[in-house]
Design a protein that fits this description.
With about 270 residues, this protein is of the alpha/beta class. It contains 10 helices and 7 strands. Strands 1-2-3-7-6 form a 5-stranded parallel sheet, with helices on both faces. Strands 4-5 form a two-stranded antiparallel ribbon. Helix 1 packs across helix 3.
Amino acid sequence: MNIRELEIIANNLRKDVISMIYHAKSGHPGGSLSCIEILTVLYHVVMDLSEDSKGNRIDRFILSKGHAAPAYYSVLSSKGFIPHEDLVTLRKVTSYLEGHPSNKINGVDCSSGSLGQGLSIANGIGLSKKISNESGYVYCLLGDGEIEEGQFYEALMTMNKYDISNVIFFIDNNNLQIDGKVSEIKPHLDLKNKIESFGIYTQVIDGHDFNEIISSIDYAKNSKKPSCIIANTIKGKGVSFMENQAAWHGKSLNEEQYMQAMKELGGI
């Protein structure tokens, strides 16, 4: 699949995110839009979604930043796990598409809720694969606000101790959380060196550049070590009035905003 094809998929996913949140009158657009390229690469280029003899997918994915469920549902729909017409039922009382993903949804490997837990879950799955001599990787996506949780650093120690080299995790580093800038609320300081100090192979990339995302995953696999990819991103990417605005962490759109966003993304 070439880069232009990936750009078209990513743009369609962004339109789905906007449509879902508009119809739900609730949701988290900012952090959903910032991770679209990462999810596009994982699901349309990298991951082996076929099943092993036990009925489990070869590669697994954990959305630790569960509030980015609209992005997750949109990419799952693009791979046929969720009917596209169901997306607009997001957060409805009668819908199975809840505000955070549940593993009762086709294609979802793990329920997400309280932040900070996803890497620990990914480690558990990865270690199980290692002990059972099973192939495949576990990919995990975390938010940069989320990694203020102490459990994240405990998970890094676990990765190092058990050499869980089949886990590759991304940090969606958009520098915004619900209350403002991460760098002002609880600064990560030198995040790359900090994570590397735990024995984790760590890269810093442009999280909206398809070539960099693809290459970073290849480098991570070749490192033969537990791996982190810090993806510098823009919160609200693709919609001008949402970009780099903490106010769009968790907020719906009115009709005028919806029409403007969809126009910027190429129409309804």
